[in-house]
Write a structure and sequence with these properties.
Layout (H helix, E strand, L loop, with lengths): L2 E6 L9 H12 L5 E8 L20 E5 L33 H13 L9 H14 L4 E6 L3 H12 L5 E5 L16 H17 L2 E4 L16 E3 L25 E6 L9 H13 L7 E6 L4 H8 L8 E5 L3 H9 L3 E5 L13 H8 L3 E4 L5 H6 L5 E4 L5 H12 L7 H4 L4 H15 L2
Parallel strand pairs: 1-2, 1-4, 2-3, 4-5, 5-6, 6-7, 8-9, 8-11, 9-10, 11-12, 12-13
Length: about 425
């Protein structure tokens, strides 16, 4: 008989983005290894991005529990002068100096009144509901995943009520050192409060799970013997479909550079863009065959900046968000995949979920990140990948672009199969089995 795991997550289909992929894919394969997931998630979340196609990935054995949530972000719809592109429910904000006065005020309220995040208003309801549920439906393990880190505070309260149930606190990103928190933690009291809550969680959890090997360095100190890293990965089933005919181009000479994901000021690829600009200036014929696509949520100010570069304005396209199944196909149709890691104090521990999908596509990858980062370590030694830093010389970028575009190296499946979602799910269930022996 399968064991059961209660998974508390804010992000669940039809929500989209990297936050939903991790546990959607874990739960997809957990039943194969003797575990039945029970997912607890909001009934009426205020998602910024939706992808209905992800609903197809929910395993039929997964039971989903939903409870209504009070979303403060809903009130933004009734306030005049709010640019939803500046502030969105993914908690990703434009550069502070570019925010409108109204948006700055909202940012202040968000940071000072909702600790650790606005979803804290769901905590009391959730603890009450799940306490009743657990009394009638015993679970073998409880898992919380954040951000939003208020999910961990739900787990903390449940751990107090059910101390014999092992609790796994999964950190997809840091907490008190989370990069976009820094604009909120502008006084010692707020920072101390976040650290105190973080400390309570990492001390009470039986396992502190993370997406990168050095995540513990961005958390307050705890017993490292209970720290476990299971990275994000790629789902082999996502790469088995044929290319849709509607994505085909008539010309086979197009050099297509693709980026997918969030694009903010802290990921602005200045040197890369300058390298491409110089390349186009030196070879005017490129304008007829070079295409740069930035898929996903883009800072509108940054989009405007890039679009104003004369040599690039007709080459750079911002298609916006598209479903995950479609972006996989664009990976396959690219000449070069661009991977931008946030250029902030905690970039060392950021391994974007698309990193392994990029590799699984078999296409050349140019990564812009600190060389001592965890993502750089993963890419090291892979023949069709290069890692540069944001301030590296433009000539280094040009050289890397040329080398990667001319690369005929085909990655061996053996090199990345350990990052398949199925393999990672096996690692997870092995950990859960150890916890529940």
């Amino acid at each position: 008989m399968n064991k059961t795991a209660l998974i508390i997550t804010y992000y669940w289909p039809p929500s989209s983005g990297g936050g939903v992929q991790r546990w959607l894919k874990f739960t997809k394969y957990m039943p194969e290894f003797g575990w039945t997931p029970v997912v607890y998630t909001p009934e009426n979340p205020d998602f910024h991005l939706k992808d209905e196609t992800l609903l197809e990935d929910i395993h039929p054995e997964v039971k989903v529990l939903k409870k209504r949530i009070l979303e403060p972000y809903f009130l933004l719809n009734f306030l005049p002068g709010i640019d939803k592109k500046e502030i969105n429910t993914g908690n990703q904000w434009s550069s502070e100096d570019k925010l409108s006065l109204t948006s700055r005020a909202i940012a202040w309220v968000r940071g000072h009144l909702f600790i650790p995040d606005p979803r804290i208003l769901w905590k009391r309801t959730s603890v009450r509901f799940l306490s009743r549920y657990l009394k009638n439906n015993p679970m073998d393990v409880i898992i919380t995943t954040g951000p939003p880190h208020s999910m961990h505070l739900i787990g903390l309260e449940l751990k107090k009520k059910f101390p014999d149930i092992p609790w796994v606190a999964d950190f997809r990103d840091p907490w008190s050192q989370l990069d976009y928190y820094q604009s909120f933690l502008n006084n010692s009291y707020l920072k101390k409060k976040h650290i105190q809550l973080e400390k309570l969680v990492v001390d009470a959890a039986d396992v502190v799970l993370a997406t990168s090997p050095h995540m513990h360095e961005c958390l307050t100190s705890f017993e490292l013997k209970k720290f476990v890293c299971i990275t994000n990965g790629f789902d082999h089933e996502d790469f088995e479909e044929d290319l849709p005919s509607q994505l085909e181009y008539s010309s086979k000479d197009i050099i297509r550079i693709v980026y997918a994901g969030l694009l903010k000021q802290d990921r602005k690829p200045v040197q890369f863009l300058e390298a491409v600009r110089q390349w186009v200036s030196e070879e005017p014929g490129l304008k007829n065959k070079l295409e740069i696509l930035f898929f996903g949520n883009v800072d509108p100010h940054l989009e405007e900046e890039i679009s104003m570069i004369p040599e690039l304005k007709d080459l750079v396209v911002f298609p916006g968000y598209i479903p995950h199944s479609e972006i996989i196909q664009w990976y396959k149709k690219s000449s070069l995949l661009l991977l931008l890691v946030n250029n902030t104090h905690n970039s060392k521990v950021n391994i974007p979920g698309k990193t392994l999908e990029y590799l699984a596509s078999g296409k050349p990858v140019m990564c812009v990140s600190n060389r001592d980062s965890d993502v750089a370590t993963i890419l090291k030694g892979i023949g069709h990948a290069r890692c540069l830093e944001y301030n590296d010389p433009v000539e280094d970028y040009k050289t890397a672009i040329f080398e990667l575009l001319q690369s005929d190296i085909i990655i061996e499946n053996e090199e990345i199969k350990k990052f398949s979602r199925k393999s990672l799910s096996k690692d997870l269930t092995r950990l859960l089995d150890q916890l529940t022996q």
